[in-house]
Every structure is written in C-alpha cells, then in structure tokens.
Prior knowledge:
The structure is a homodimer. By secondary structure, chain A is of the alpha+beta class. In chain A, 20% of the residues lie in helices and 32% in strands. Chain A has a single domain, classed as S-adenosylmethionine decarboxylase. Chain A contains seven helices and 16 strands.
Amino acid sequence: MSSSSISLPSLEGSVASRSPSPSSTGPDHYFEGAEKLLEIWFHVEPTSKSLRVIPYNELTELLDLAHCQIISSRSNEKVDAYVLSESSCFVSDSRFILKTCGTTRLLDTVGRLLDLAREYCGLNSVLNVYYSRKNFARPELQIGPHGSFEHEIARLDDHFEDGAAYCMGSLKQDRWYLYTLHSPVAPQRNVDHTLELLMTDLPEEVCALFTKEVCADGPECTKLAGIDKLVPPGTIIDETLFDPVGYSMNGLLPHSDHYVTIHVTPEPEFSYVSFETNQDLWDLYKQANKVLDCFKPKKFQLTLFASDESPGAKASQQHLWERDIPGYRRTDLQFIRLAHDTLVYAQFKQKVNID
Amino acid sequence: MSSSSISLPSLEGSVASRSPSPSSTGPDHYFEGAEKLLEIWFHVEPTSKSLRVIPYNELTELLDLAHCQIISSRSNEKVDAYVLSESSCFVSDSRFILKTCGTTRLLDTVGRLLDLAREYCGLNSVLNVYYSRKNFARPELQIGPHGSFEHEIARLDDHFEDGAAYCMGSLKQDRWYLYTLHSPVAPQRNVDHTLELLMTDLPEEVCALFTKEVCADGPECTKLAGIDKLVPPGTIIDETLFDPVGYSMNGLLPHSDHYVTIHVTPEPEFSYVSFETNQDLWDLYKQANKVLDCFKPKKFQLTLFASDESPGAKASQQHLWERDIPGYRRTDLQFIRLAHDTLVYAQFKQKVNID
C-alpha cells in the first residue's frame, strides 16, 4: 500500500480550529455544518496531465478564495486528500472535489480552478459538474451567492452553459439543491457512484465524543465513535479533532480513488454530520445503515448517485425504493434521471417509540 | 347510457368567451393557458352525502370567487362535468376537481368549498389534496397568491395541515409545482391515476383549427382536430369553441367517473394545450402518444400519478423510465414517492430533423 504525506508546508501539527463564525462565542454562537459540495470531472485528452500536478501553493491560493485552509493531507496512487479548516478536498487525475462548510465561499474558486486545470494540466473541457447542498439553517449568515440557490445558479451559469438545477424534497422541510451539467458530447462514461448522508439532531452522548473535553485527538475520536469500523481494512485515515469541538476525517481506500469523508459539527443546538463515499460496495444500503448506527441522528437526508454502469449502486437505489430503513420513517423519496446517472434523494425521521 | 344536462340556468347557448386579460387586444395581448389544478378527495362517512347535492347556485357562487363562470354542463351516473369560462370543474361523490386558467383566483375558493362540503354533505374531513400547476410564463399578471408558488403554499397551509410542496423539473426551464396532502389516518385507498400532458409551442396549422375563422363551433373543432379519436366510443363530449379563439372540452366515459378534459389556448405567440384524464387504460403511454400526434407540440410536460393499486399506470410509469417517446428528446425525468401514490414527471422537446 502506498501512502505518502505531501511534503509541502501545511498546518498539520498546529492546533486546528474551524474559522470563527461572526458569533463564535456566547449564546448566539452558530456554525453551519451543512457543506457546499462541488465535484468536477474533466475530459482527459491524449496530451493532458493529471490535476495532481497543480502545485501546492496554487492549491492553497485557490482555497484562500473560498476562505479555508489546508490542515493536513494524505495520498495514495490515485488521489490526494486534504483535510481543510472547513471540510475536505480530493484531487485525482481528472476529478476535483471540494467540500466546504461554515460561511466559506466555495463558488469563488470555480473560475480559478478551471484556469489552473487549463494552465497546468491542459484539461480544457469539463465533462460533468455537480454542485449540491442541503438547505442552510441560517442562510442569512452566508456570504455572496451562497445566500440563495438562485444566486448560486447564476454564479455557476457564469462558468458553465446549460446546467440544470433541481430542488429535491418538500419545500416545507429540509431539502437538497443540485446544479448539474453533463457535456452533451461526453466521449467518456465514468463508472461511478456517490453516497451521501446528511444527518442532523444527534443524541447528546454522540455529540460529546467530538469534543476536546472527551477526546485528546482525532485518532482517539475515530476509535471511540466507531468510525474506524465504517471503513474497510487498509484504509488510510486522516482525521482532525478541532479545538474546542468538531471533527473531520478523510479515508483513502487502498490502491483506488475511493474515499470516505466524514465531518461532524457536534454542538447539540445545531448538530450535523455528513458522510460521503464513492466506495465500491455492492450494497450501499447496508453501508448507510452502519453509518446511522454510529451517529443515531433524529433526521437525515440520503443522496445516492449511480452512473448507468454502476450495478451495485443501482441495486441499492432499488432497495431504497422498496424498503424502509429500520427505526426510521421515510418522509420523502425522489428519483431523478440525469444524462448518465440516476439520483435518489430521500429524507428520513426517527420513529418515536411509544412505550 | 345515462346523460342528462343539468337543468339549472347556465350560459350555454350564449356566445362564450374567455374573460378578457388586462391586454386582450393589441400587440400586448396575452392569455395564460397554464391552469391551476385542485383535486380534493373527501373522507366518506356512513352519514355523509355526495358532493353532487351541493346546489347549483352555491356552485356558481363558489366559482365567482375564482372569477370564472359555468358555460355548460353534462352528467352521467357518477359525475357532473362543467365547462367553465376558464377551463373545467368535475364533481363526483367524494372528489372535487377544479381547473382554471388565465388570471383566475382558484385558491380563493378553498375555504368556501370545504364549508359547502361540510354543510350540505356532512363531508367533514379531507383525505387527499393535490394542487398543481406549470410555472406561469407571465407570473406578474397573476393575482393574489398565484403570483408565486411560495404564496400559494402559504394560502394552502391556511386550510390544510402538513401538506408537502415540491418543484419538479429544472429550475432553469419549464417546471411543475405540486402541493399535496395525504391524511395520515386515511382509512380508504383510492384506485386512481391521472395523466396530464401540458403542451406548448404548437404548429400554426394546429393552432388555426381552434379559431372561429376555421371552425363554426365546438363539435366541428372536435372532429377536425381529431379529438373525437382520443376518447373511447360512447364518451359524452361537451365542448366549447370560444370567440374569437380558444377551445375547451370535457368528456365523460360511460357509467364511470372517468373523464377526459382538453383546453386549448391557440394564439401562436403563447400556444398551450392541456390534456388530462383518469381513464382506466392499461397503457397510458400509448394514450400519451395519440395526444401528441394530435397536437404536435414542440415541448411538453407529462405528469402521471398512480395510486399503489393502479397496475396499468404503474406499467406506464415504467415505460416512461425505460423508453423514449418517438420524435422527442427527454429533458427531465423524475419520480416521487408520495404516501399512497407514485408520481412521474417528465419534460420532452421535439427532436430537430437535420436533412
């Protein structure tokens, strides 16, 4: 198994903390755990290079535009994974994933990212774009276009043509927004799928684990919370326990560009956990159940993208359509057919036990 | 076959016209063909009566609230069908359907309708509510809550608790809004399905048929346009050709509460046709193709509700998922699982022939 820490300067080893929100102390303290998530696939040409050749300093400057910093990084043969002050970044040969929470300005990076791909890698055209997020609990705290999905659409349209934009879930409760673009002349088809669980309202005893009061560091937290059991043996884990609270984890599966990433906002007043993976598991439905068993949220949203060539994910989507998740009541279920993918969106609420 | 015209006063025989829009003549002339559609199912109790006992004068006063009038009516054993100055109304024992176009104020009727059902029929509780519409081309011309779906949601929430509200289709193109409510303790399950086709951008030669210039009256129009071929033999057809343009048709299938309703806004600048049916056809997919062959729209939206007990509609939904519609490119496809129904929403655009 190849595992190398990238040798350029980082914040690793220093005391990590999430960037302060406007009210980071006192009764008004609030942190928006829900992430903005951007995934871009580039069209590989005979003369193009890997996105991984983009220099580290360019990457840090790119992330500066979003107002977040690299805390640590790990790599395997296929992908460079970064834990950020707010969430994560994954760079593989032709896929760039940036996930940022809080009041970060993710969409401010898009133009520069496309320039970097062109300048350093000769990656001149985009195959697929996915920009998604849960509705924010406090949209008025967001900066720039992130205050509303309509403004985010307009900003994305500045960079991409013919994107489609959807709202999944009832407009009257938690919902999930997606902007997506598929190049009409895409010569390549990616065998790919992504499972995301966006969980809210965690029990206090689960929240407590992700604090400096209970755990000394990230690795202790990973073990105590049972997160090490959520990934296959041999996974390279890179985790950070923030001071005073909060947890981020990237996992790289051996010899592949498969990753797991988990981010915990443990304040009980606005607790939030995201779990995301593109693991090649036959039954992502079982994986989802394991994650729920770990975090025990009162509510969660589930999204599962499956490309047409991804039979395991298709089977899991079918499961979701036909079966319930034990202990939960499904309050929304939607399918959407995209150009080369199917997406399932579901929302669940914990059943109330009446004894 | 029982067919009786309701004997109370109506506008039947007078020259029918759609209510004038603020700019009904001249270059600014515009008419919003896209209908607001409300369908309410009431919970039948041992002592309750049919909705059809509501007196005619109460019905006309109810429709006054929406700013539309009854033009003509037909009945069979199961249902009373009304052609309105703007679209249609169907009243059966426990189901009330009101569909109104232009700048009508459909949601102003809801409170009074619930009162009438309670007072005259002892129908005290609602089983299901569906309120839906296409996005308006000119929302700024709409009155009251109809100017935005958010305001419509708020108005519906004044009358119903725990409704869910969805936007289907890309926010960047034509889309379709749905507010729906399912009583959590519904003791009855309806075997039901509804197919709707909302068609825009019709060829000029199709538009021309639905004008007083080409046709003398509704029946001629029905025949010339081939609409009589879209319904089974024995269907009671009630149609109106408006002056100078526009067409509305209700069809009642023999001995059942199955209906077909078609409304045409034929002005080429903003042409629009809606087709709606709850016909008990095994293959609604074939029915959709016949309708498209008749109106040849450049774009259309299709919605198909199927209750869990409606195998024909389920099979048609599966068809839509797996197959294309000849001559059209699918630009959106979404499924949504409701409490006792599945809904498929799709949008299609005509393929361009390159010779």
